[in-house]
Design goal:
Mean pLDDT: 78
Largest sheet: 3 strands, antiparallel
Order of helices and strands: EHEHEEEHH
Low-confidence stretches: 1-19, 164-168, 206-211
Shape: globular
Structural class: alpha+beta
Distance between the termini: 10 Å
Radius of gyration: 19 Å
Helix content: 10-25%
């Protein structure tokens, strides 16, 4: 799914591309979806599959809602090269992906909110924001993500490697010391990828080749 540009139709700031309502069709959102990557749901999926249950799996990313109040705030957001911003909330079905989105809760003349997914601990611009959800962007091609998609009634189209190629069957518990401090976290959620594996993720397939924000938007 292509990432929308940093924009609002009423307020324009330097270095930000804006789209007007006359430029294209609007983005239309549908039903609220269940996000399979939340900490609560990934933890539930883990405990459904594995014997070494956990009270909570540490988040890897944060889903944020920025609420810029000025053109200076927009400028600061535009200067974050690694920040992919969406002008619509990612937890809704996209019925039509258009060139702009009109937030129904934003009064006329005010800046619309912007949304992003960032790794935990990332530096953020001095722009008001709220944490919408804590996420665990676990490897896509694993039983863990497959189970998280199942319990949230989402379609999962990945491939789990056969036994001996990195994922085996659910009773092959992943190592219990897979924590954010591990060089291979969260790839060490694979049963045979240790915390300190030399090669990143041990050469196994992990997430689809998408930016984190797109991965969440594209579940």
């Amino acid at each position: 799914m292509p990432a929308p540009t940093h924009e609002t139709a009423q307020h324009k700031a330097p270095d930000i591309e804006f789209r007007e309502a006359s430029d294209s069709l609007p983005t239309i959102l549908g039903a609220l979806r269940q996000n399979p990557y939340t900490v609560a749901r990934i933890t539930q999926a883990w405990n459904n599959l594995y014997r070494n249950t956990r009270s909570s799996i540490a988040p890897t990313h944060l889903y944020l809602k920025f609420t810029p109040q000025s053109e200076a705030h927009l400028q600061m957001l535009s200067q974050q090269d690694d920040l992919i911003l969406y002008d619509y909330p990612l937890e809704y079905e996209v019925v039509q992906l258009g060139g702009y989105y009109e937030d129904p809760n934003t009064p006329p003349g005010q800046l619309q909110p912007l949304y992003a997914v960032v790794p935990v601990g990332s530096p953020l611009p001095n722009v008001p924001y709220q944490i919408v959800e804590q996420l665990v962007l676990a490897p896509y091609h694993t039983h863990l993500t497959k189970e998280a998609f199942r319990i949230t009634n989402n379609d999962w189209s990945g491939e789990v490697p056969p036994p001996g190629l990195g994922q085996g069957t659910p009773p092959d518990d992943p190592t219990d010391n897979c924590t954010p401090g591990c060089p291979n976290y969260p790839c060490c959620l694979y049963p045979d990828v240790p915390c300190d594996d030399v090669a990143p993720c041990g050469g196994r397939p992990t997430n689809r080749p998408l930016a984190p924000c797109t991965q969440v938007a594209d579940w």
